[in-house]
């Protein structure tokens, strides 16, 4: 592997990741970057585990979704384990699916049926949070070498920082939008009903609680219609 060329490509990708305009765009750039930069990688995706549910993000092809859904259904698999830290591993490499049935006896033979030959999973994490797993797939057994694992790990490290940063920025934008909506809705209620600021907020909050509608959506309703639904 030409590590000098890889370093240059990785530096370019790292800058590109931070320039993306949304979380989805950042994730798509991560998985496409994995296919471009990691030797042997034919498909990639990001897997999140929410309790009993698995979420596939930015898959580069249907094979990734099929594997994720299979792991969700069976409650086992290398990427499933990495994402939920079942074995406390941060990296998982399955060299050859024809020889790896002991650890995941239900998943491996079915994965072979999907056409998988080998795969790698990397925990996406920062010092503050764990974000899921970056999963790399090949239809060929033995496609991923130690050099490929090192390259994948470097990519995952940059990806985790970019993912965390993009998500934090999106949450901040959402919080600012919510704050603006609530302020506008309070102003409408204050003007129409002669309420004080605290009273207007209490109206929104109580309506949200009684209808089980998020406060942001209640405020949006007031902004769009000028009133709360009966």
Describe the 3D structure.
Keywords: Kinase, Transcription, Transcription regulation, Transferase. This is GAF and ANTAR domain-containing protein. Pfam families: ANTAR, GAF_2. This protein has 230 residues and is of the alpha+beta class. The protein has two domains: 165 residues, GAF domain (Beta-Lactamase), CATH 3.30.450; 54 residues, Winged helix-like DNA-binding domain superfamily/Winged helix DNA-binding domain (Arc Repressor Mutant, subunit A). A hairpin with a 2-residue loop joins β1 and β2. The longest helix is centred in the last third of the chain and has 48 residues. The protein is elongated and about 75 Å long. The N and C termini lie far apart (67 Å).
Short description:
Helix content is 57%, strand content 15%. With 230 residues, it is α+β, with helices and mostly antiparallel strands. It has a 5-stranded antiparallel beta sheet, with helices on both faces.
Spell the H/E element sequence. Answer: HHEEHHEHEEHHH
Q: How many strands appear in the DSSP assignment? A: 5
Number of helices: 8
CATH architecture of the largest domain: 2-Layer Sandwich
**Major β-sheet, in short?**
5 strands, antiparallel
* Strand line-up of the largest beta sheet: 2-1-5-4-3
What share of residues is helical?
55-70%
Sequence stretches where pLDDT stays below 50 over 5 or more residues: none
CATH fold-level name of the largest domain:
Beta-Lactamase
Percentage of β-strand residues: 5-15%
> Residue-averaged pLDDT, rounded?
86
What is the CATH domain class of the largest domain? Alpha Beta
Q: How far is it from the N-terminal to the C-terminal residue, by CA?
A: 67 Å
Cα-atom radius of gyration: 23 Å
